[in-house]
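I am writing to request your help with a piece of structural work I have in hand. The matter concerns a single protein, recorded as an amino acid sequence and a row of backbone structure tokens. Could you please explain, in whatever detail you think fit, how the structure tokens follow from the sequence? Thank you for your consideration; the sequence and its tokens are set out here:
>
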Amino acid sequence: MRILGKRFSLFFIVICAVLLSAMISHKFYVTTTSLRFVESNNSFQITSRLFIEDIESILVKSSIPDLKLAPDSDESLVDSLLTNYFEDNLIFTSVENEFKINFLGKEYKDDIMVCYLELKFDKLDENINIQNTLLFDFSEEQKNIVHYRNGNQRKSFLFTNTQPRFKIKLSPL
């Protein structure tokens, strides 16, 4: 009986180790973007955080196979590719306008790329539509969280493949 108990204990430990390692290796596909409306200069200050490995895979697939990030193999090329990628995947529109975002720069923090962008409005519209499809072409499980701040009002949105668009009001929420 004692041998059976030891075998069961060993079997239980091995099963737990396998299950635990499977949970640890499961990758979480998410980006976070902070969107702050600055009324004094009619602009959004935008900060996006993406996993370096994920965005590098997208850029390599769409452009140069030996492209590297953190450190960049070619910083001006990487910045140009990122500018185009954000223009195609983080889109701001209103009933009358499609707005152009400006890529200001990036920095690397551990395994995260932090990108800084700005969107200036010539004319303010009350409602702004946001489409966030960042890394949707990388994984079907991708989710993008946007935290919106306008003064002391805050709201968060979860963008998914089935819900890639939301509307925000520039007037108080």
Remarks:
- The longest helix spans residues 2-25.
- Residues 22-26 have pLDDT under 50 and may be disordered.
- The two ends are 68 Å apart (CA to CA).
- Helices lie at 2-25, 52-62, 75-89.
